[in-house]
Amino acid sequence: MNIAFFENKKINKNLTNPKLLNGLLLLKHYCPLWESIKYSLLHDCMWPCNNTCLILSVEDFVSCNPEELARKCSLSYALVAVRRVLLAQYTAFPVSGADLYEELLSSTAILSTGNPSLDKLLDSGLYTGEITELTGSPGSGKTQVCFSVAVNISHQLKQTVFYIDTKSGMCANRLLQMLQTKTPNMEEQALQKIKVFRVFDVFSLLACLQNLRSNGLQRASVGGGSVKALMVDSVSAVLSSMLGGKQNEGMSLLMQVAGELKMIAKDFNIAVLVTNHVTKDGNGHLKAGLGQSWSHVSRTRVLLRRVEDAGTSSLRTATLTKSSRQACHLVEEFDLCHWSEERRTSISGKRKLEERSKP
Q1: Distance in angstroms (rounded) separating the CA atoms of residues 267 and 262
Q2: pLDDT tens column, 180-191
Q3: Is pLDDT of 345 > 80?
Q4: What is the DSSP string of 109-152?
Q5: Cα torsion at 121, 127, 132, 136 (round to 10°)?
Q6: Could you tell me how far CA 112 lies from the centroid of its own chain?
Q7: How do beta strands 300-306 and 315-322 pair?
Q8: Locate the RecA family profile domain: which residues (predicted)?
């Protein structure tokens, strides 16, 4: 995005102020009435006769006296509309606990992973509107779990899954094999419900998420059924190289990715599942990668480990390391090669996706 459309030389000369530039870009991007007010707002309000800049940022704009501003610009209705758009987009409004509980009952669905042990750990499955994170060392089974969950959602729940692959780990043959064990004659239909996006750097990931949020999710819901899950395997593959040292840009990009994932989960009522690598803390214990800032992004976090000295190499343990519903450090064991499809039961106060879809 650029601001080359400002033709007035006096305006161009003053665009060296970074706060002003950021404010203008934000207004231009989010305000549909920008074209009709830009010149009057810039010329009449930002550069008065004494050369003192009254409005340097969006904060200044929404905090100023609207009557005085409207008098200077002669655009009272447009300015009020701009203020309302900005406040609605970026102001936090209080919500009562009763309203939150009603929202939970009316809109939240729980998507079963298809594995009873993992469902038990996650308090019945993946919750829409939230981010769930799988962490683990290489070979711990993060990608395999993502495959199994995607297959279960597309086949059992008949819902569309968006799968963002950042490390070339997606294997269509493996998905097909997993589906063939469930339904020999309907695997192609289920496979079509898994939409794969391949991105290999953080900028492509951001562009992909922004495109999905702006129009991709709506188109998919209209043309290919409801989209209920988004998977990113993995976030650390494109973010870890941008962090550390004095790379301030990396932290900014990390928070942008986190913001996009949260908005997609909340605005479209989608269950978001991401994978992340692990590091060791000062005591030698495993912890999620990407630092302290990322640790607050997911609502639920599960640590996967390979079971050593087991009779089968596909045996794994899943440890709940972060949750607002269950006690942390709960551990469940499961076999990647025997992803069970036991019948799921409903839980009081929460609704399964398949139960809510019944007439």
Answers
A1: 8
A2: 887 767 777 888
A3: no
A4: -EE--S-HHHHHHTTTSEETTSEEEEEE-TTSSHHHHHHHHHHH
A5: 30
A6: 19
A7: antiparallel
A8: 107-278
